[in-house]
């Protein structure tokens, strides 16, 4: 049991692996934007990657905080308690999954925006020149 508590303390101290991944991805986005802007082949897609990354960082805690406030207001004498614990069981997994999903989509968009275009594997035949009949 002691090992479990030590593991929890280390996890709280160092954070999850996703936090380090977000830091590395953020630094990569900044590097591409500031030092290598010519590498960005699709600027619109790169902007979407930045927006989705920002949402992946902010949406989870914001929704969780908003939901907690709404839940606490329902527990007051002014509010009614209509089985919100059942809804809570649905909302928590969705909120927890939103961050990693948005981060993954953001990474895919960023990679597509900065990757060089793929060369076709085959070459199309050039049409032979049109022969005009002699006049």
Strand tally: 0
Note the overall shape.
elongated
Q: Mind telling me the C-alpha Rg?
A: 26 Å
- Judged by helices, strands and strand pairing, the structural class is mainly alpha
**Low-pLDDT regions:** none
Please, how many domains?
A: 1
Could you tell me how far the N terminus lies from the C terminus, measured between alpha carbons in angstroms?
99 Å
Number of alpha- plus pi-helical segments: 4
Can you summarize the main beta sheet?
Answer: none
Beta content comes to under 5%
Report on this structure:
The chain has 135 residues and is mostly helical. It has one domain (15-114). The chain has 4 helices and no strands. Helix 2 (17-34) runs parallel beside helix 4 (84-114). It is elongated.
Which features characterize this protein?
single chain; mainly alpha
Summarize the structure.
By secondary structure, this protein is mainly alpha-helical. The protein has helices spanning 2-14, 17-34, 43-74, 84-114.
Topology of helices and strands:
Elements: H1 2-14, H2 17-34, H3 43-74, H4 84-114
Helix pairs in contact: 2-4, 3-4
